[in-house]
Amino acid sequence: VVKNITQEESKYSERTKHLTNRLNFVRCYVEQKFIEVEHIRTNEQRADILTKALPEPQVKHLSRLLGLVDA
């Protein structure tokens, strides 16, 4: 069965091709044990302090996790 790919479908594929490449790159590194992927709970996401407006208790908690203030 041959499917004709429309121009619109082709654009979508071109725009997302890099995502497949990145996925394969990361998957390879995980398999070779160069990196380890682990689940991080929502309230432990350290990057949130840099990207979101957070309530003060969460800012203090994440600051301690990052070593920005004494524990």
What is the topology?
Layout: H1 7-31, H2 48-51, H3 56-66
Q: Which structural category do the helix and sheet elements fall into?
A: mainly alpha
The number of strands is 0
| Gap from first CA to last CA | 63 Å
Q: What's the SSE pattern? A: HHH
For this structure, the quaternary state is single chain
- The average pLDDT value, as a whole number, equals 83
* Count of separate DSSP helical elements: 3
How is the main sheet built? none
Q: Segments where pLDDT lies below 50 for 5+ residues?
A: none
Q: Compute the gyration radius: what is it? A: 20 Å
Shape: elongated
Summarize it.
Helix content is 56%, strand content 0%.
Describe this structure in words.
The structure is a single chain. The chain is built from three helices and no strands. With 71 residues, the chain is mainly alpha-helical. The longest helix is centred in the first third of the chain and has 25 residues, at 7-31. The model has no long low-confidence stretch (mean pLDDT 83).
